[in-house]
Amino acid sequence: MSGDGSLEALRRSGRIVIVGASLAGLRAAETLREEGFTGSLTLIGDEPDEPYDRPPLSKQVLLGKATADHTALPRRRALDAEWRLGVAATGLDMSARRVRLADGDEVPYDRLMITTGVRARPWPHPLEAELDGVFVLRTRQDAIALNRRLTAVPRRVLVIGAGFTGSEIASACRELGLEVTVAERGPAPLVGALGGVVGQVAAELHRAHGVDLRCGVMVTGLEGDPAGRLRRAHLSDGTALDVEVAVVSLGATRNTEWLAGSGLGAGPRGIACDAGCRAFDVRGIVTDDIFVAGDVARSPHPLFNYQFLSLEHWGNAIAQAETAAHNMINASADRRPHLWIPAFWSPQFGVNIKSVGVPSLGEEIQIAQGSLAEHRFTGVYGYQGRVIAAVTFDQAKWLEHYEHLIETAAPFPPPGTTVDRRAEGLRPVPADFPDPSLPTHGPTVTLSGYSPTDRRITLTPARA
User: Fold this and answer.
1) What is d(CA 161, CA 441) in angstroms, rounded to the nearest whole number?
2) Where is the FAD/NAD(P)-binding domain (predicted)?
3) Domains in the chain with CATH codes
4) At what angle do helices 314-328 and 23-34 cross, to 10 degrees?
5) Is 371 exposed, middle or buried (0-12, 13-18, 19+ CB in 10 A)?
6) Spatial CB neighbours of 86, under 8 Å, sequence gap ≥ 6
7) Is residue 251 within 8 Å of 262, Cβ to Cβ?
8) C-beta separation of 28 from 322 below 8 A
9) What is the C-alpha to C-alpha distance for residues 54 and 138, in angstroms, rounded to an integer?
């Protein structure tokens, strides 16, 4: 559909399909209705539940402070939508504008939004992953099963990976009084997301709260007893641990496999889209009927050198979904770009960690307020002479100030008038991020270059 008349027809009686009954999918659907879309609206989700909030799963639910069925997302308004839950999308026919489902059905659309998000990366050895006692944490059912096992008071819990989710799980285990070992192949927790300077503070927090933290090691194998119950973990340093529960926290995989062969610019890094959330096809040509939002999307941002950013952030999912929904049903002149500044929070070991911007892009860090030794500080990241990000440990009041500096491309280091005059705040130091070619656990922002697609294609010149 194109032109004012057809756009009005779309708004009145068109068919919009949202694949991904997620936070982004729900907020997109609500925005469509709020902005006057009165046509057919269908939401497709592979889980049986209507959209729910995921952050509480690794926090309140594991601690027993909330039940998984009390994590449903609040509704801003009635949707008048058809829900196709518990059935996964298995294919996309872009030319016929149809989504294929696992039950054999096909759903036609005039506009399509993809908000399929990510899933937990499983333990890579299938037989070991099936042992009783091996868990991942992403869905409601994951949280229910893990909470049940932790409530049974296992002798020791092994957390594999010390990114944000792994660290939150370790924190919850210690709060429950459980013995916990964390195995992290990087030099420190959170090192891929926040760098080595801040990672060392995170390591101190783990150890100060009784975590058996082992960095620079990998779990090489999980061993079960004859009944198929987890009993032992083997580490790359040659040691072995007796464990009854292992939680695999090795990052996330973007849910794009169902788009293979569709012609859409989708791959392991997500679905490439422009600043208006329109998806690219494999030729790098933007579509006008397929939009993308949330964790599965990667879009260019002018504040970060137009790098394509993949953001696993709660606030980004909402902001991008609202922008995508607006642009779906509005003319080009009325569309707007998605320019949300990445922001993230993580409570662990009694400390509230928050960040804005893209720390993993930073070359240097300056401790502008507070003290690393006191585990209460504000770190500011610089990239090519300007402020690119900030992280706070129990100093969130400073974030709004640094968000403004990021938005205005303020010079780095920041002016001395805003810097604490203690020794560690006087000069920047290397942020100490690992070599980007080496895998680490936990970055919440992935930089994925300028290419609109990860696929290799062959272009055949047109014949005269």
Assistant:
1) 6
2) 15-321
3) 3-119+253-334 (3.50.50.60), 122-250 (3.50.50.60), 343-446 (3.30.390.30)
4) 40
5) middle
6) 45, 46, 47, 48
7) no
8) yes
9) 7
CA 405 – CA 399 distance, rounded (Å): 10
In which band, very low, low, confident or very high, does the pLDDT at 309 lie, cut at 50, 70 and 90? confident
State pLDDT tens for residues 183-209: 999 999 999 999 999 999 999 999 999
- Chain center to CA of 4: 37
Residue closest to 22 by CA, chosen among 316, 294, 272: 294
* Separation CA 75–CA 39 (nearest Å): 19
| Residue the block writes with tokens 């697609």 | 453
The reported pTM is: 0.90
Residues in the chain: 464
